[in-house]
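user:
I keep going back and forth on a fold encoding question. Separate attempts, laid side by side, tell us more than any discussion would. Would you put together a sequence-and-structure record for a protein of your own picking? Write it directly below this note and I will take it from there.

assistant:
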Amino acid sequence: MAEPLLKVSGLEVHFPIRSPFLQRRIGTVRAVDGIDLDVARGETLAIVGESGCGKTTTGKAILRLIDSTAGSIHFGGEDIARHGAAALAPFRRRMQIVFQDPYASLNPRMTVGGILAAPFDIHRIGVAQDRAERVAALLRTVGLPPEAARRYPHEFSGGQRQRIGIARALALEPELIIGDEPVSALDVSIQAQIINLMKRLQADRGLAYIMISHNLAVVSHVADRVAVMYLGRVVETAPREELFFRAQHPYTQALLSAVPGRGRSRQVLQGDVPSPARPPTGCHFHPRCPIAQTRCAEEAPASRILAPGHAVACHMVSP
């Protein structure tokens, strides 16, 4: 098998909790608590789960926008988890992000042309005339006229702004783009246009995507594989069809039961998601799990392979 473009192993991201007076460390938020992921070239991996489960933190750690506490991040065969700024520079060109909020992710004081030319300035690519031509080409690629370069972000709709954000992510011809809820802030009528644009760009350019989302209806249209997160851990990973029709983890089954039109009886989970500052012992899901046993509270389940590409971390699921 070909080596994956991205391989994440044992990734942890912990944040200290400090006393407001003496700044002593009094606890730890275990935002990401030891996860394994991989993404092949040209593939779309969706990371799904409730708000606060660690999806966005995982994406930022992969991009090295925040530092991980432990684990490795192999991109193109090289572990970049501990690279300094200079060593990271060439990898910055190969990995990009499309942010959730198109209204907050674009500098309102810069023209669209300035926003799209900034990556070329930072990486010292081309001269002024060449950059202007590149900006015009990027705008055409995402369905906007070259004249948009002279305008400011506030002059565009939310969908148009997200197209600008996608154009910025494409500027340096990356191999991997992380979409952090890229359509959740848009009207439903616009969401399909942005999803179709991203799928077309993937087909044209061979892009790999990590799509972070809580919307399983969107995930069903874009993902090749799906990783389900709960309280900082990956509880199930499977190809899209396998997961949607043969999910095994009780948490995944509860999520899917909430998707309209799936033909499943609604499973309402009891209680709230625990705090990542005080996660439960054993399996993090056991306080809310309808089939939990004593072992679940005492021992964290290892991820087990049930079928090719289908792994589940649950004591109660048999291979």
Observations:
- The first helix runs from residue 55 to 62.
- The mean pLDDT is 93.
